[in-house]
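PROTEIN DESIGN WORKSHEET
SECTION A - STRUCTURE
LENGTH: 171
TOKENS:
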């Protein structure tokens, strides 16, 4: 039985044709996200990455579609993914959160705040990623959310606990 993953389910619920991206609607962004999530190697992930990076966020300009994109990207961290997918997802989240609203009339002036709220809904996934996944990339995203110090403190406390753990048979 094939299991549908969280991000793929969320992706399917969004009407991407009504989300504005650089150069048109968000259908191309949805297609690129889908390609990224199933990419079979780093080169395929990179091609998909640029289909998102150049349309949801381009040279620091964040477009309306970025809010839905951020929700799907953070949801993708829930399921097991290849390293190249996780790194790309985290880099895209970082780019979106580091940007500024596009001057396009289709882009809400609070789009970056909306994206920040969407990503915060998966804050625990970013903390988990910092603990047992792509630590540096996750910490970069957490930094953009003002959460990096909390994450570093958590990592430090886990390191102390691991160093002092006495397992069965240890004396």
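SECTION B - SEQUENCE
RESIDUE ASSIGNMENT:
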């Amino acid at each position: 039985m094939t299991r549908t993953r969280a991000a793929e389910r969320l992706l399917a619920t969004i009407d991407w044709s009504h989300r504005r991206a650089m150069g048109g609607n968000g259908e191309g962004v949805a297609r690129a996200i889908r390609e990224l999530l199933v990419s079979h190697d780093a080169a395929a992930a990179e091609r998909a990455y640029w289909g998102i990076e150049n349309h949801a966020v381009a040279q620091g300009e964040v477009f309306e579609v970025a809010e839905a994109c951020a929700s799907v990207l953070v949801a993708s961290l829930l399921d097991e993914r290849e390293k190249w997918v996780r790194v790309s997802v985290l880099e895209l989240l970082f780019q979106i959160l580091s940007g500024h609203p596009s001057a396009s009339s289709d882009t809400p002036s609070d789009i970056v705040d909306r994206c920040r709220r969407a990503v915060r809904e998966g804050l625990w996934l970013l903390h988990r990623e910092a603990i047992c996944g792509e630590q540096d990339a996750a910490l970069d995203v957490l930094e953009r959310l003002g959460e990096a110090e909390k994450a570093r403190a958590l990592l430090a406390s886990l390191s102390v606990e691991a160093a002092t753990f006495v397992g069965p048979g240890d004396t």
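SECTION C - NOTES
The longest strand covers residues 20-21.
The longest helix spans residues 148-164.
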